């Protein structure tokens, strides 16, 4: 799958195929979910998606950087950066590791 990019259109089509909503409803659903995630991050909230990972915004302070061409010191202004931390479930799936199944689960 190297070189392929998943777009909003791909996500909308997947929702259309799997859920059975119309294409317009599927596109609207994908947009609404993405808007909710972005809105939460803008407010500084953490977004956790089970078995996928978590997104958070971190504040970075001002620091001095260096222009690699000239060697001149340049101030880097404070900014907020987006951080994604993959869940262990996602990491295992990417690496082809199967999750251990608990056969003693009494909640079933």
List keywords for this structure.
single chain; 108 residues; alpha+beta; two-stranded antiparallel sheet; 36% helix
Descriptive account of the structure:
- This protein is α+β, with helices and mostly antiparallel strands.
- It is built from three helices and five strands.
- The protein has helices at residues 8-19, 23-42, 88-94, and strands spanning 47-49, 53-60, 63-66, 73-76, 79-86.
- The strands form two sheets. It has a three-stranded antiparallel sheet with strand order 1-2-5. Strands 3-4 form a two-stranded antiparallel sheet.
- A hairpin with a 3-residue loop joins strand 1 and strand 2 (53-60).
- Helix 1 (8-19) crosses helix 2.
Topology:
Blueprint: H1 8-19, H2 23-42, E1 47-49, E2 53-60, E3 63-66, E4 73-76, E5 79-86, H3 88-94
Antiparallel strand pairs: 1-2, 2-5, 3-4
Helix pairs in contact: 1-2
Structural class: alpha+beta
Computed CA radius of gyration, to the nearest angstrom:
20 Å
pLDDT below 50 for ≥5 consecutive residues: which ranges?
Answer: none
Count of DSSP H/I helices: 3
Strand content: 25-35%
Largest sheet: spatial strand order: 1-2-5
Q: What percent of residues adopt helix (DSSP H or I)?
A: 25-40%
Task: Find the count of extended strands (DSSP E, 2+ residues).
Answer: 5
**Average of pLDDT:** 90
Overall, the morphology is extended
The SSE string, one letter per element, is HHEEEEEH
In whole angstroms, the N-to-C terminal distance is 36 Å
Biggest sheet record? 3 strands, antiparallel
């Amino acid at each position: 799958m190297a070189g392929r990019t998943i777009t909003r259109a791909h996500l909308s089509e997947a929702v259309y195929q799997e859920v059975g909503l119309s294409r317009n409803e599927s596109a609207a659903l994908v947009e609404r979910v993405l808007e909710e995630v972005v809105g939460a991050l803008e407010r500084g909230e953490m977004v956790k998606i089970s078995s996928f990972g978590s997104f958070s915004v971190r504040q970075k302070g001002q620091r001095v950087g260096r222009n690699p061409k000239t060697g001149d010191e340049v101030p880097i202004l404070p900014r907020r950066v987006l951080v994604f931390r993959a869940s262990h479930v996602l990491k295992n799936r990417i690496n082809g590791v199967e999750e251990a199944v608990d056969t003693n689960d009494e909640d079933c």
